[in-house]
Write a structure and sequence with these properties.
The chain has 88 residues and is mostly helical. The protein is 61% helix and 0% strand. The chain starts with a helix and ends in a 14-residue tail after the last helix.
């Protein structure tokens, strides 16, 4: 029955969190470290976004190039007919 059976019987599945100590920086060094970590995360996020944008743009360009290649290959090619002279 799993989790559903425990919930229907009214038993405790997991205990509640009673208290948690706040993580507030007290000194200027701790505040600076916190700010540094936050800025580091922002830089990583912006780099990931940039990489994603570059990837998507390259995918668009390759799709457009593939369409151009397909159009070139699908163009009908003229066949040259050889008509020999009548007195041949």
């Amino acid at each position: 029955m799993g989790w559903l059976g425990l919930l229907l019987k009214g038993k405790k599945v997991a205990g509640a969190i009673k208290s948690a100590a706040p993580n507030v920086p007290k000194t200027n060094i701790q505040k600076a470290l916190r700010t540094l970590k936050v800025e580091g995360h922002k830089i990583k996020a912006s780099m990931a976004k940039t990489r994603s944008d570059v990837f998507h743009k390259t995918q668009e360009i390759t799709k457009k190039l593939d369409k151009i290649k397909i159009k070139k290959t699908k163009e009908p090619t003229k066949t040259k007919h050889y008509y020999p002279p009548k007195d041949f």
